């Protein structure tokens, strides 16, 4: 008799434990589902507020990149012209310097001739 009552109490205790476990796990599951639904609603309503500025920034960066690429091509194309211009200026300056040196030596010869004219 005691064994039957003890085993009945043990079965009742196990059943009560399973019911309590199920109750608390279901409550946690429902709370988790509520949090997940809240996150989904937040993302759905706020994503527009986040995506619009990000799209504007992205489009602005694309326009800026295109403009910078245009300037980069312009600089690449004109650096040869600038190099030719600098080369021409340096050559012109060297020619002018050489001409000035020739003229100065010629002027020195003329001055020597004038000073030594009466000798």
Secondary-structure blueprint of this entry?
Blueprint (H helix, E strand, L loop, with lengths): L1 H114 L4
InterPro entries: HisK_dim/P_dom, HisK_dim/P_sf
Protein name: Signal transduction histidine kinase dimerisation/phosphoacceptor domain-containing protein
Organism: Spumella elongata
Number of strands: 0
* Helical segment count: 1
Strand content: under 5%
Unreliable stretches, pLDDT < 50, 5 or more residues? none
Mean pLDDT across the residues is 85
Described by the principal axes of the CA atoms, the overall outline is rod-shaped
Largest sheet: none
Helix/strand order: H
Please give the domain count. Answer: 1
Beginning-to-end CA distance, first to last residue = 161 Å
How much helix is in the residues? Answer: over 70%
- What Rg, in angstroms, do the CA atoms define? 48 Å
Structural class: mainly alpha
InterPro entries: HisK_dim/P_dom, HisK_dim/P_sf
Domain Signal transduction histidine kinase dimerisation/phosphoacceptor: 38-97
Protein name: Signal transduction histidine kinase dimerisation/phosphoacceptor domain-containing protein
Keywords: Membrane, Transmembrane, Transmembrane helix
